[in-house]
Write a structure and sequence with these properties.
434 residues, alpha+beta, eight-stranded mixed beta sheet, five-stranded mixed beta barrel, 13 helices, 30% helix
Length: 434
């Protein structure tokens, strides 16, 4: 009877049993008559101990010649080991080499620069650190979907190729779409608004594209965004939903990703603080005043830049909503603030510790005449938005929504400096490969 093949993550359930694991050797050291093989299989990492007198001479010699990232199948007995991160190790009885590289692995034990690592992103993903980040990424995505599913939201996917501008023409990737002009989507929001009129509570989730020539640590040209849209939610309802989503997300990561956060050396005390109470809320006008007192030269009408967001968030121990920006600083679809007609009913949610904006949201303009006037003043091609204006012609309604950037959220929760490390294949103004 063949020895059962199991995943490394399941080994603690098989102590004192003989099993086979299949994976890759990411490190090795030898001490005369013992090989210590560090094996990964995608589910976890484990040390396989090969003692010369307990295996065939051929297997011991084969292990001696293994290069990093050799693909192997190893059979042995699972042993408890309190010193091991997983609590177990494998005492080897036999090894089969599927492929042993003939060249030295490009990403060895020495330190490498970020550009080199990104050039070899297809290999860098194999490291323990990158696995931890991608595991947290997957947990966040799962948490978002679970949060919305439990609240009766319907997933309605939006198109990636569109003829309508969502966030301003300066940030568009333009396409030659047969005989028409088209763009890579900056947002799925306009389509989510149409779906909200049909189904009430909806969301879309997928890649979005911005052609901004930004070189900051917070920007990618392609990133993933979750965009809920809710019928009959006003500006306050919208912020309450965002706060609940972010708190739930942090709670889920703290509960399910302890090992990954530890590996990343993330100080979790600021994350625990997020769960302690309501988020802060400050008006844009008050934010400008506070920033001026702290030395910023920002004036009314300016959007908050990365430096302003960093200064502001350093004043708070939890996320902070900045509400009601000036009309000119925000998109055409935002609802005019009835209490301050120079501003709109919107909010950006800024993460603490200097991470800045992770969510942008607003109540949408539901008045056809006001929306049309704003679009005309912004010089938008009205023919491209006929379907969007129909939402105000046929059963217009109060509604709100927001977009939360996945990569910025991961960077904040993981405590990482640069956003390019939190997406499998980062796209920036200088990087298209691999």
């Amino acid at each position: 009877m063949a020895t059962p093949w199991i995943a490394i993550k399941d080994m603690p359930q098989h102590v004192e049993e003989e099993v086979t694991i299949r994976g890759w050797m990411y490190n090795k050291r030898s001490s005369g008559k013992i090989h210590f093989l560090q094996i990964r299989d995608g589910s976890g990492f484990v040390q396989a101990v090969m003692v010369k007198k307990e295996v065939s001479p051929e297997d011991f010699e084969a292990a001696k010649k293994l290069w990093m990232e050799a693909s192997v199948e190893i059979t042995g007995t699972v042993r408890s080991d309190d010193r091991a991160p997983s609590g177990v190790e494998l005492t080897v009885t036999s090894i089969k080499t599927n492929h042993n590289p003939t060249d030295e692995y490009p990403i060895g034990k020495k330190d490498h620069g970020v550009d080199f690592l990104l050039d070899n992103r297809h290999l860098w993903l194999r490291s323990q650190r990158q696995r931890a980040i991608m595991t947290i990424r997957e947990r966040i995505v799962w948490s978002w979907r679970q949060f919305l599913h439990d609240r009766d939201f319907l997933l309605v996917d939006s198109p990636i190729i569109t003829g309508a501008i969502g966030e301003g023409a300066s940030g568009l990737f333009e396409l030659d779409y047969f005989d028409q002009k088209a763009y890579l989507a900056q947002t799925g929001q306009l389509y989510a608004e149409a779906a909200a009129a049909a189904y009430g509570k909806v969301y879309c989730f997928g890649p979005t594209f911005r052609a901004e020539k930004s070189k900051t640590r917070r920007h990618l040209t392609e990133f993933w965004m979750l965009e809920p849209e809710v019928a009959y939610y006003d500006h306050k309802d919208n912020m309450d939903l965002q706060e609940a989503l972010v708190s739930y997300t942090v709670k889920q990561v703290l509960e399910h990703c302890k090992e990954e956060l530890t590996l990343l050396e993330r100080d979790i005390s600021p994350l625990n603080t997020v769960l302690e109470g309501p988020f802060y809320r400050i008006s844009y006008r008050d934010a400008v005043k506070k920033l001026n007192e702290l030395g910023s030269s920002i004036k009314f009408g300016d959007d908050l830049g990365a430096e302003d967001e960093t200064i502001l968030t350093q004043q708070y121990d939890r996320p902070v909503f900045v509400e009601c920006y000036p009309k000119g600083a925000k998109a055409f679809y935002m609802k005019e603030n009835p209490d301050d007609k120079e501003t709109v009913l919107c909010a950006d949610l800024l993460a603490p510790e200097g991470y800045g904006e992770i969510i942008g949201g607003s109540q949408r303009e539901d008045d056809l005449d006001k929306l049309t006037a704003r679009m005309e003043s912004d010089g938008l091609d009205m023919d491209s938005y006929g379907w969007y204006l129909d939402l105000r012609r046929y059963g217009t309604f109060v509604h709100s929504g927001f977009g939360i950037g996945l990569e910025r959220t991961i960077a904040w929760i993981c405590g990482l400096h640069h956003i390019r490390e939190v997406i499998p294949w980062p796209r920036t103004i200088y990087r298209l490969n691999p």
